[in-house]
Amino acid sequence: MNQNEIQELLQSVSDLGITELSIEKKEFKITIKKESAQGAPVYVQSAPVAATIPAAPAVAPAPAAVAADSGSSATSNAGDESKYITVKSPMIGTFYRSSGPDKDAFVSVGHDIAPGKTLCIIEAMKLFNEIESEVSGKIVKVLVDDASPVEYDQPLFLVDPA
To answer: What is the rounded CA–CA span in Å between residue 107 and residue 140?
Structure first.
């Protein structure tokens, strides 16, 4: 979907008086909400799948970083990481490891986690969303720096389920 199509969609939403519209296709997802006080549509989210497909191999740089630290053991580390579960971002936003700058991180390398445990916060449009674990295990690696932007489906943590 190009910019002209999005503008036409915004105009149609405005003309028809629709307050919210969500479209999800194979290539993209878009949500448009219109604030009733202003009457103008507000572009909320567009997550092109083309941008998220490269995010999946983002785990691949991790062995390279390990290889830089440990020399020639890149081949054995690549096989080791396949046994880990990758916790991915459920949304686009800003990644935070703790609830505040003076607070401890929710989880760090070596922490045990269980389903329902808060792993991080992702801020999206001034809303702070607690991301909870869906798996049990031990945090092996944090793949994102604190206060950095993340994409939909971007790997955040590696978890050893053993």
So the answer is: 11
Q: Pull the structure tokens for residue 126.
A: 């001034």
Q: In 3-state terms, what secondary structure has residue 119?
A: strand
> What's residue 35's pLDDT?
64
What's phi and psi for 67, nearest 5 deg? -65, -35
In angstroms, the CA 8 to CA 115 distance is 43
Q: Are residues 56 and 101 both part of a single domain?
A: yes
* H/E element, 50: helix 49-52
pTM above 0.85, yes or no: no
Q: Quick one: 126 and 97 in the same domain?
A: yes
Whole domain around residue 97: which residue ranges? 51-160
Nearest residue to 144 via CA among 95, 107, 100, 102? 95
